């Protein structure tokens, strides 16, 4: 009798643990500790307004980091997300200024993101170049294209109607946060529930074995880079909506923040490992740090230092707890 | 043998969190003795070797060298104490030269700053001279064959003036003639007074070169035996803890042709291969390493592309341009190198099993995990996975159980033609018997099986018919009635080699 009750009691807990891994729990604890520290040090830190601020400030990085996570899981890396966003931003913006309807201009921005990702993916998957070098090359290339296209000048005067789309709010939350939350949900479903997600994990975990098992290696990798490009374009739309202008130098060093969020969240640069929940938590951790330190009037040099230490601490904890789920 | 042993394990225990890997292990190895260490996977052999080489520290007990207890706190200390470890997977840097590898970690220097490359090469050549003088110390290590690389490791042990050499599965990828050479080298080490601890799954090898052996099971020593006094069968039952029934071969082959291969060739290794595979048949493919066996399987599995030839399944021509084509045609490959080509280490048993049939589990784009779990449970029960933990990452399972999961992968994908490349490499005796059983059951159910193996007893045990490959093509086809090791070997050895041998004999005679 006791046996049976024990069994039924253990079941749901195991299910829950399966959904929410030990590693994600660790990231969550890290976030809670950081929140608690700032809660004590900064008066009014837990005010609703500030918490929403943190989410809004984290949303662009979270958006990029989700795409980055999928690419990293596939065993690659995408250093070109910032310039991809810039190229997408200036093209959408100049169309908007020229009076092209919003949906068309936004679609064109997304298309740019997809094409940038496609080029990365094809060079990695079909030509067989190393992802780091490919995207290092396209990082400069895409940035140069954005600069050449605009002559180095910002595109100013976006229509108010367009700005309203990304500056609105729903249920008291900024639309940008809601958009990224929906993207995160989709990314989670992709990774956990679709063959493509399983293929990403397999390709990054052991490409040769995945090939023998019939996994479409090239298609999987290219899709990951295209998603990353698309999410960079989405981040670009959110940003130019907020700023009302598109600069060709927009998105400088975005790739590093995105990689940091993914790594804090448990993605392994060796491939085959990563978590959507973890990445979101990682992005929020970085956003919280920045928000809290700014409120404390800490110099930006120290903010940089704190961000660096957080990344290193996360990696050390990863190392120590390695192989325990 | 001297009274004081060169190497003595005294009451060694090792406890990991939640696992007791070794308990009270004691045995000794004399100077000049070649001592076999036998046991199934998980018996504790590797843990013991890791203690000997300073990777792990024992929870209790001590290691004595020449009667004195030694502290082997790290690999450097173990090396200083005279222990050399030769790993199954060679730990070398292929881009560096042979000599650089031999002095890796403690290079000879001039004035502590510059590496004395010439001097290193001279000393390396000295050490190699006794073992294999054809190895060039200046050559990049990667240009050497596996067997030669092993010799380099042994030469490195000589350079270190090792008193104890531990070898973990040194022969898992050697041909018989390479093994013979290695055996001579080991015997020479022993003559020089080195104590050799020799771990292998291949009992015939252990019986061939060791004088005594210690058998372990579940972390304890079952016994140390004098190999001249016991039978292989007795040793096996000590290893597995029960008698293994000697199974008789039973054929399930029908006359219906399932797979028909004609004039198949690849750009490099395979040329003009033709054969038929019947329903319910187990076809063995024997031949030396490099005779094109693995390459032939890879062509059939779609992993490499054929340059010419045709493949028909049930009378219909099929195109095999990639593994997906092959899987769709009902062909699945169980590859030789499980770690490299078989498993996705971090993923669970269930996910590894489902990898080849994702389309089936996700008919509308979303994976039906309930169904996946149910099928995984069914297939893994069928292949007798142990421990039966379907959500556990596959890397935490033994080689035999990983192999079972890969077989389950093809069962789930509805494969009807299974290609096995060295199905029991690196798998212990008990699991080996299970894999044999499984292959026979698959055949009995009407599947067709191809088994490539370097182990002739394995081929003879399993195959209804054997193709012997040589120089990329089928040199002979042997029916069950004509099947014996001599017949296979006679066809497998390249003609050019035997002719060259004869020619040399003539010259010597003249």
TrEMBL record, chain B:
Q: Does the keyword ATP-binding apply?
A: yes
Look up and give the membrane topology term. Answer: Peripheral membrane protein
Protein location = Cell membrane
UniProt keywords (A-Z) are: ATP-binding, Cell membrane, Membrane, Nucleotide-binding, Repeat, Sugar transport, Translocase, Transport
A GO CC term assigned to this protein in UniProt:
plasma membrane
Tell me where the signal peptide lies. none
User: What is this protein's record name?
Assistant: ABC transporter
Species of provenance: Mesorhizobium temperatum
Q: Upper lineage ranks?
A: Bacteria, Pseudomonadati, Pseudomonadota, Alphaproteobacteria, Hyphomicrobiales
């Amino acid at each position: 009798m006791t046996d049976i009750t024990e069994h039924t009691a253990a079941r749901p807990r195991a299910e829950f643990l399966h959904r929410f891994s030990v590693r994600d729990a660790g990231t969550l604890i890290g976030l809670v500790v950081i929140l608690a520290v700032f809660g004590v040090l900064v008066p009014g830190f837990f005010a609703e307004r500030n918490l929403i601020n943190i989410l809004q400030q984290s949303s662009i990085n979270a958006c990029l980091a989700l795409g980055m996570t999928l690419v990293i899981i596939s065993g690659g890396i995408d250093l070109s997300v910032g310039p991809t966003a810039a190229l997408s931003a200036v093209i959408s913006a100049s169309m908007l200024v020229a009076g092209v309807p919003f949906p068309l201009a936004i679609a064109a921005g997304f298309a740019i993101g997809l094409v940038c990702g496609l080029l990365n993916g094809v060079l990695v998957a079909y030509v067989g170049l190393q992802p780091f070098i490919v995207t290092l090359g396209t990082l400069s290339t895409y940035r140069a294209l954005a600069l050449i296209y605009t002559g180095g000048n910002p595109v100013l005067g976006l229509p108010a109607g367009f700005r309203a789309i990304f500056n609105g709010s729903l249920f008291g939350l900024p639309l940008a946060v809601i958009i990224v939350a929906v993207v995160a949900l989709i990314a989670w479903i992709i990774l956990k529930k679709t063959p493509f997600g399983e293929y990403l994990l397999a390709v990054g975990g052991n490409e040769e074995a995945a090939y023998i098992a019939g996994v479409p290696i090239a298609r999987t990798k290219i899709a990951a880079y295209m998603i990353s490009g698309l999410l960079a374009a989405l981040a670009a739309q959110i940003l130019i909506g907020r700023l009302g202008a598109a600069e060709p130098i927009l998105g400088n060093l975005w790739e590093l923040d995105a990689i940091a969020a993914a790594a804090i969240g448990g993605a392994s640069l060796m491939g085959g490992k990563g978590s959507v929940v973890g990445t979101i938590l990682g992005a929020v951790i970085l956003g919280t740090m920045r928000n809290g330190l700014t409120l404390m009037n800490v110099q930006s040099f120290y903010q940089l230092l704190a961000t660096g230490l957080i990344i290193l601490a996360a990696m050390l904890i990863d190392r120590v707890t390695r192989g325990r789920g | 043998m001297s009274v004081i042993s060169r190497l003595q394990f005294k009451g060694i225990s090792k406890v990991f969190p939640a696992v007791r890997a070794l308990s009270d292990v004691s045995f000794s190895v004399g100077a000049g003795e070649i001592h076999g260490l036998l046991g199934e996977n998980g018996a504790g052999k590797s843990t013991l070797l890791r203690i000997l080489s300073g990777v792990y520290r024992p929870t209790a007990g001590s290691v004595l060298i020449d009667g004195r207890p030694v502290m082997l706190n790290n690999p450097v200390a173990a090396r200083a104490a005279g222990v050399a470890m030769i790993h199954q997977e060679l730990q070398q840097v292929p881009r560096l030269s042979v000599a650089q590898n031999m002095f890796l970690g403690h290079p000879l220097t001039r004035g502590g700053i510059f590496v004395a490359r010439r001097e290193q090469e001279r000393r390396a050549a000295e050490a190699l001279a006794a073992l294999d003088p054809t190895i060039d110390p200046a050559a990049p290590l990667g240009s050497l064959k596996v067997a030669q690389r092993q010799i380099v490791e042994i030469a490195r042990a000589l350079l270190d003036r090792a008193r104890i050499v531990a070898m973990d599965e040194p022969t898992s990828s050697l041909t018989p003639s390479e093994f013979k050479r290695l055996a001579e080298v080991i015997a020479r080490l022993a003559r020089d007074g080195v104590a050799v601890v020799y771990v292998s799954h291949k009992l015939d090898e252990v019986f061939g070169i060791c004088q005594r052996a210690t058998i372990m099971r579940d972390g304890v020593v079952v016994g140390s035996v004098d190999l001249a006094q016991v039978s292989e069968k007795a040793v096996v039952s000590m290893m597995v803890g029960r008698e293994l029934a000697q199974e008789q071969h039973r054929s399930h082959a029908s006359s219906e042709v399932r797979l028909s291969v004609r004039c198949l060739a690849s750009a490099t290794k395979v040329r003009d291969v033709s054969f038929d595979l019947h329903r319910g048949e187990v076809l063995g493919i024997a031949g030396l390493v490099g005779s094109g066996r693995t390459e032939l399987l890879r062509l059939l599995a779609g992993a490499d592309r054929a340059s010419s030839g045709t493949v028909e399944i049930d009378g219909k021509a099929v195109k095999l341009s990639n593994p997906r084509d092959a899987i769709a045609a009902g062909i699945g490959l169980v590859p030789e190198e499980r770690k490299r080509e078989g498993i996705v280490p971090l993923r669970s048993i269930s996910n590894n099993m489902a990898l080849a049939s994702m389309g089936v589990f996700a008919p509308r784009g979303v994976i039906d995990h309930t169904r996946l779990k149910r099928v995984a449970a069914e297939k893994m029960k069928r292949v007798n996975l142990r421990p039966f933990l379907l959500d556990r990452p596959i890397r935490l399972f033994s080689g035999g159980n990983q192999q079972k999961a890969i077989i389950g992968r093809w069962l789930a994908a509805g494969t009807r033609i299974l290609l096995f490349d060295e199905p029991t490499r690196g798998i212990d005796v008990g699991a080996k018997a299970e894999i044999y059983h499984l292959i026979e059951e698959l055949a009995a159910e009407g599947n067709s099986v191809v088994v490539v193996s370097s182990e002739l007893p394995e081929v003879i045990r399993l195959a209804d018919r054997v193709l012997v490959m040589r120089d990329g093509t089928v040199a002979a086809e042997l029916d069950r009635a004509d099947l014996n090791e001599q017949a296979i070997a006679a066809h497998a050895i390249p003609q050019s080699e035997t002719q060259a041998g004869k020619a040399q004999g003539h010259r010597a005679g003249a």
